[in-house]
Amino acid sequence: MSRSAAGLLRDLIVYQIYGANTGVGKTVVSTLIGRHFVGRGGKTRWKVHYIKPVQTGPVEEHDDRYVARFAKHSTSTLVKYPEPVSPHVAAKGSPYLFTDDMLVSRLSAKLREDARGASMASGHLGVTIVESAGGVLSPGPSGRPQADIFRPLRLPVVLVGDHRLGGIASTISAYESLLIRGYDVEAIVCFESGKLGNVEYLKKHFHPLGIPLFEIPKIPDVEGCSRQDEIDKMHSYYDTEARSGSLYSLGHRMVNRHVARLKTLNTLPSRTREAIWHPFTQHKSIQSSEILAFDSAYGDYFQTKLGEREPGRDSKTKYMPEHQVLYPAFDGSASWWTQGLGHGNPRLSMAAAYAAGRYGHVMFAGATHEPAVQLAESLLKGMENPRLTKVFYTDNGSTGIEVGIKMALRAACKRYGWDGSTEDIGILGLKGSYHGDTLGAMEASEPSVYNKKVDWYRGRGHWFDYPEVKMRNGRWAVEPPAGMEEEFGPVQHFEDINDIFDFDVRGHSPRYEAYIEGVLDKLVKEQGRKFGALVMEPVLLGAGGMIFVDPLFQQSLVRVARRYAFGPSQQTAEEEAQLDALSWTGVPIIFDEVFTGLYRLGRFSSGSFLQTHADISVHAKLLTGGLLPLCATLASQSIFSAFLGDEKSDALLHGHSYTAHAVGCHVAATSLTELQYVARSYVWHACRKAWGEKGVGEDVGTEPRSLSSAILARAQSRRVWSMWSPDFVKTISQHERVESVITIGSVLAVSLVDRSKSGYASNAAAGLRDSMMYELTDDRYAVHSRVLGNVIYLMASMTSTQNDLSAVQRVLLQKLKVMTAREQEMESRE
Amino acid sequence: MSRSAAGLLRDLIVYQIYGANTGVGKTVVSTLIGRHFVGRGGKTRWKVHYIKPVQTGPVEEHDDRYVARFAKHSTSTLVKYPEPVSPHVAAKGSPYLFTDDMLVSRLSAKLREDARGASMASGHLGVTIVESAGGVLSPGPSGRPQADIFRPLRLPVVLVGDHRLGGIASTISAYESLLIRGYDVEAIVCFESGKLGNVEYLKKHFHPLGIPLFEIPKIPDVEGCSRQDEIDKMHSYYDTEARSGSLYSLGHRMVNRHVARLKTLNTLPSRTREAIWHPFTQHKSIQSSEILAFDSAYGDYFQTKLGEREPGRDSKTKYMPEHQVLYPAFDGSASWWTQGLGHGNPRLSMAAAYAAGRYGHVMFAGATHEPAVQLAESLLKGMENPRLTKVFYTDNGSTGIEVGIKMALRAACKRYGWDGSTEDIGILGLKGSYHGDTLGAMEASEPSVYNKKVDWYRGRGHWFDYPEVKMRNGRWAVEPPAGMEEEFGPVQHFEDINDIFDFDVRGHSPRYEAYIEGVLDKLVKEQGRKFGALVMEPVLLGAGGMIFVDPLFQQSLVRVARRYAFGPSQQTAEEEAQLDALSWTGVPIIFDEVFTGLYRLGRFSSGSFLQTHADISVHAKLLTGGLLPLCATLASQSIFSAFLGDEKSDALLHGHSYTAHAVGCHVAATSLTELQYVARSYVWHACRKAWGEKGVGEDVGTEPRSLSSAILARAQSRRVWSMWSPDFVKTISQHERVESVITIGSVLAVSLVDRSKSGYASNAAAGLRDSMMYELTDDRYAVHSRVLGNVIYLMASMTSTQNDLSAVQRVLLQKLKVMTAREQEMESRE
User: Looking at CA atoms only, how far is residue B6 from chain A in angstroms?
Assistant: First the structure.
C-alpha cells in the first residue's frame, strides 16, 4: 500500500479539483484559479502550477494544453494514454502498467518539485492545482475509483458542482463520497444555474457545514464561432473572471484553509498537552514536542507531523525538503493491536455509515437487530468450539473480561455452594498475564507495576509459572524459567515452530500435569483456597511482554483444571443429570482472546492452537477490523444455565447503554467476513508458503462476501506461520544484541539482551524505537512502534503487504546495527 | 418527525426506483418492471401499481401517464405542481404546502391501499413501484433531499445506474448516498453503455457487495419518428424487453429479497434467543415471541416487528391490515438513555464515516489527533467549571467512573498518606445510586439486587439518606425519607420547581449540614473509617429509580465533604503551597453526569444545578448524540498533579485500546455542537416558555456549526424546565393510581401507588408499559418504554417535537385510565 507522504507542503498551496460529474467545468475552474493567482495582487508573489495526473485522448485535446493556452503557467500531465476513453479502459490496451502507487508517487514527487523555491519567509508562494478526471469516483488506470487512488495524499478539495439539471443531487452525492474517504472539501465552485436554482440550493445546503460556495458566470457561448473568435472570447472571459470578487474570495479561502491546517497541526501537540490526560503516561516528563500529531492515516501508515523532533533534524539523513509537513510512518503497533484491515478502509466506513443511517443505536435489552445476531452467529461459527452457544456484548476487552469472570465465578459458586459475598473466590492464571484496566479485570492479574498504585486492587488468585517458547540464535526452544528445570524439564529444541504445536508427537506431559496438580494441592488442600475460573491468553501474553507460552503447558493446565476437585458439588441430582460432555468441570475455562484472537496469530481462534475448548471466550480489538470499540464474550450452555432462575437477581445483571450497538456490530460483521477472505487470499499465501505451507491462495477481491463454512475452512490454516519472513526472524535472532525473538501470525517481538550492568540496557528498546521513528533511513522509511520493557515488538495488519513488511524488517535490522555501533563507540570511550 | 410505519407489507412487494442522476431512464425501467410483472408467468397473479409521489410540469408530460400508456396497470401521482421545475422551486410558488410528513403519510396510505386484496395464501400478490424524481438527493417539495424525506419508509431500492459518460462515478456516489441513509439497494439496473464500459465496471464493483446489476438494451432511437411510430416502437421495445432474461432475473431478485427480509424479521427473535445472552435479563422466562425485532429506527421511532404478540391481536383496536409487517413505536427510553439527536441522523452518520475515512482508529498513547482535542476542549468549555482542566477518554460510563475513582483515591491516599493496598478506603455516596457494572463502579454503589450475586462485590463506602423532590397531587414537595423528619425537617412545598433550586432564597441548610457532619463523625472519628471520594449523580439518580434528590442536600453534602477533616495532610510544605482555590479539599468530588449531563436535564452540565463545581466529572451516553460508546472523565489540575512523579508507576496506568477513537470523538464533537444549537432553537423554546421562561428561540437550521461562548451562553438556560408539558405533569400527578411524578429536562418518571397488599401492584408499571406498546390507541400510537420497579419513565431525545410528545402524553393518560378501570373491575369481581 502507498507510503507516500500526504500532500501538505508548507509553502505550496495544493488543491485537488474534483467534479460532481463529468462536464461540469473542472478545467475552466482550474484555469481560472491558475490565472487568478498569477495575477493576484498583494505582497506575495505566486508561482502557479497545474497538474493533470492522468489524461487520455489525442495530445491536442489534453487539458494541460488548454490550461497552458489560457493561463500561461507551468502545466504538466503525469500519465498519458492516446485512446480517448476512460483511463481504466485505455490502460487495459496499453503496454504501460501504472499501479496506483506509481501514480501517487509521481504526483507526490511533482508536488515536491513544485514546492522548490517557494518560501513563505521571502513572500514567494506556490499554488498547485491538481485536476482530476471525470467525477469523484471515476476509475483511474488501475480501475480503482480515483478518490481512492489519490487518498494517500489527502489533498484538500475544491469541488466543482454540477450546474445542470439534476446537479443538486449529483453535487451532494459527490461531496458525500469524498467525505466518506476522509477528504476535506474546502470550497464548492459552481457555474450559474439560472432558473434551476442549483447554486442557491447548494449554497444553503453547504453553509451549515461550514463550506462556502462560489458562483461563477457561465462560460461564453462559442457555438458557431471561428477558432480565433472562440479563443478571444475565452481570453476575455478569463481576464474578467479571474479578477472577479468570487475568485478573490475563493483564493482567500484556499490560502486561509491551508494556513489553518498548518496551524492546527502545529498547535495540536500543545493543545493536547493542555487538555488531554493520556492513557498509561507519566505526564511529568512529557513535552509537547514529544507528542505525535496525526493528520490522518491510510492503510498501514500514519501521516505524522512532529514537533521540534522532526526527522532528519538531529540525524545526518535529510528526509525531506523543509516544505514537507507530513511524513508517513508504518503503524508498527497496529494502533495498539487493533488494526486489521488498514486505516481509512472505505468498506468499514461504509459499514459504519450504513448502520448509523439504518439504526443509530437501538436499545438491546428485550430487543434485537440483525447486525447483532449476524455477528453473534459468525463468531460462534468461526470459533469452531462446540461448547460455545451464547454471545454477550460489551464495549471493550476489559468489560468483556469482567463479564467472563462474573459468569465463571457465579457458575462455580453455584455448583460448589460457595458464598462469594463472604468467601474469597480466586482465579487461576499465568504469571505476567494482563486482562484489562477495570477493577475486576485487574483483580485477575498478578501484582505488577500496573496495579501497584491502584488503591482498590488486591489481586485475587494464583498465577502459575510456565515454560516459554523462544527463538535463540536461529533455533526454536522451549525453556523453563530460571531454576525451574526440575519442575518443567530442561530446554527442548525444535527445528520448526510447528513441531512445538504438534501434540500428537509431544503427547501429554506428565511432568507439567504433576507440577500443576502439586501447586493446586498446596493451594486448595493445604491452604483451603477456593478458585472459580482459569483465565488465560492462549499462546501469547500480550501486555505482559509478548511472552510466548509453551502451548503444551497451557493445554496441560486446562486438562488439570478440568479434572481437579475444587470442591464437592452441591448440585441436585437433577442438575447433575443435566451435565453433558460440553459442560464445564473443575473450574470454568476462560480464554482471553482479546489480543490473540481473530487472525492476530493467523487463525480465527487463538484457543484452537491449544487443541482444547474454552467454556468462555472473550473477543475485542480486531473484532471491528480496527475501527471502534466492541467486545463479545462467548459462553457455553452450562455457564448460561447457571444464571437461569426464578429470581431476576439470578440473572447476569450486567449491561452497558450501548450494548450491541448497531454500528459496532455491523462493522464487526463486515470486518469478520473481510478478514476471512483475506485469510484465504494471495496476500497471506506468500507468508504461509514461506513458512512451509502447501496449497495456493485465491483471488478473492471480486467475490461477493458471505460467511460460509467452506470459506471459513479455506481460511483456516492448520499450520503455524508468521507474516514476518522466516529468514529475517532467524537472522535477527542471531544478532549479538538480541536475547531472543518470537513470532507468530502478525506479531514479531524482539527481546534485547539485558545489559543493565553496563548502564545502557533499560532504555535500549526505547532507543531502538525512537531511532526507527526519527532517524530515517536512506529510503526515508519511518516505523512507529512500541516497547514493553526491553522488548520491542512489531505488529502487521492483516492486509499488510510483503513489500511493506520487508521495508520494516530492513529498518529494524539497520537500526539495530546503528545502535550496536553507537554502544560500542561509547563503551570504547569509557 | 414522521411516525409512519416502514413500507413493508407482507403481500405487496414495494420498491423505490432511484436514479443515479436525472435522465438515466427511471421511468422506462419502472414501466418495464410493471409490464414484466403484469405478464410474468407462473402460478402467482400479480397486481401491479405505479406511484409517482411528486410530479411537476404539465399533466400531459407526467410520468404516470407515460407508464399508464405502456404498462396498462394502475398508476398515480400523489402531489402535483403545474410548473415544470424542481419540486422545491415549484412548491415555493404554490399555495399548497406539503410537509415531508404529509408526503410520507400519503405514500404510506397508498401502499396500504395497494396491499388490499393481495394475499400470498391465495396466490395473488401485489407489486408497487415508487418512482423518485431526479437523482437520489434531488430536493422534494420541502427542499430536503428526497432520500431523507422518504427515509421513514425505508423502501428497498432498485437503483438505475447512469449509462452515460461519467456514469460510473455518479452511480457509485448515488449508491453511497443511499447507503449512508440506511437504505438497502437490492439491484442496479443500467442501460447498455457500449464502449464506455459502465455496465462491466459497475457489475464488477457491486458484485462483491452482493448487489447484482441487470443490463437493459438501449431505448430505441425515435428521433424524427412520427408520434404513432414512436409509440409503436416503444410498445415493441417493452413487449420484448419485459420478457427478457434480464427482467426475469430482476423480478426474481425483487421477490426473493422481499421474502428474505420477511424471513429475517420472522426468524430474528428465535435466532436471537438461540445465540444472544441479553443484558439484565432473566432468560428463564423469556420466549422468542417476547423479543422485539427492530428492522430499523428513524428520528424518535423504532420500526418494530413483533412475534406472536402483535399489536391488536388481543385487543379490540385493530391496528393495521395484516399486510403491514412493521409498525413505529416511540423510543420512550431514548434507547437506554443514550438518544439525543434522533436515530438515523445523517449528520452523525456522515461524521462517523468521515472520521473512519480519515483515520480509522489511530493509537492515542503518546499521540494525538484533531477530533480528540476538539472534543476535549468543547467539554471543558461547555462545563463552565473552572476546576476542570484535563480530559481522560474511555469507552463507556462504567469505565469512566472507574477512572474517576482511581483518580480520586490516589489523590486522597497521597495527601493523607494512606496505603490503599492494605487499608480500606471507601467512597461516600447516596442511597440508591448506581455507577456502572464493572467491579470498580459496582463497589461505589450500596448493596442491592444488582450486585447481590456478583461474587467479588463487597461495597466499599457509605451511602447517605436524603430528602427527595416529588410532585404529588399537582404540588412540588421536598420530602424527608420515612421517619427521618427529625434529621431533614418536615415536608416542604414549592409552587414552582425553580424555587427548589433557588439557593439564594433557600440559603444554606444548617440542618442538612449538621446531619451530614454527624454521620461523618460517627464513621471517621468513632469507627476510624477512611474515605477517598464523594461520588454522586447530580439531581437525578437514574438506575436507582429516577430519584430526584433535593439539590440543596447535594450541595450541602459537597460543602461538608470539602471542609471535613478526613485525615491529617501528609503533604510537604512545598506541596501545600501549590494548593489554590481550585484544589480539592476534604475528599475529591466526583459528579457522575453519565446519565444526567449533556442536556439530558436541559443543561450542558447537570452539576451546574447544584451551583458547585466537581473535581472530577464523568460524561457518556448522550456524548455521541446516541450513536456509539465513548466516555470522557474530566479532572482538575490538583487531581492531575497527584499522578505526576518520577516513576512510571505514579502515573494513571489505565487505558483501553480504542482510547479516544477518532470515530467516537468526531461524532461526539459534531453532536455536542448540534446539541448546543438545538438547545437555543425554536424546538426547545416552546417547552421553556411553557415552564415560564422568557426570551425567544432562534432559527438555527442554516447556521454554520461552530462552538463559541456566545452560542453556548444562548443555549444555557438558568431556569429549570422540562420537555413534558406542565399541565400534563400536574394532571397525571393527580391521578388516583399515581403516587408521585418527577420531571426535569427530557425526563419524566411516574411512580405508581404501591398496592402490593391488593396483589396487583408489583407488576402495575410493567402492565402499563406493555399496554402502551401492545394495546394500541385509536390513533394507532405505540410507545416503547422501560420501568424501574413501580416507576414507569419516559425520556425524549433533544430533538423530539411537541407534537410527538403530546401524543406520548395522551397515550400514557389513556392507558392509565384503562388500567385503573380494569383493576376496579377485577376488584369488584372479588
Answer: 12
